[in-house]
Design a protein that fits this description.
Elements (H helix, E strand, L loop, with lengths): L10 E4 L5 E9 L8 H20 L4 E10 L1
Parallel strand pairs: 2-3
Antiparallel strand pairs: 1-2
Length: 71
């Protein structure tokens, strides 16, 4: 069967050199380090997946960051 991926890149910024930077925002009262290692790994996997999708479409990705927005 087909694998499905559901998600959105929150912000993608293309710099003056043509390199794309991906930012993913999470709203949470926790700081990043307070998440379990499994959850942090899931965040990193999500970012890596977004980067691979863009790279497969010939979009150069140099940076993928997870930003926690405190609420």
């Amino acid at each position: 069967g087909l694998n499905k991926l559901v998600g959105n890149i929150d912000i993608a910024v293309v710099d003056s050199k043509g390199t794309t930077h991906i930012f993913d925002y999470k709203t949470s009262p926790k700081q990043y380090i307070q998440y379990s290692s499994a959850k942090r790994l899931a965040f990193k996997y999500q970012q890596a997946t977004y980067a691979r999708i863009l790279q497969r479409n010939n979009i150069n990705v140099n940076n993928a960051k997870i930003c926690i927005v405190p609420v």
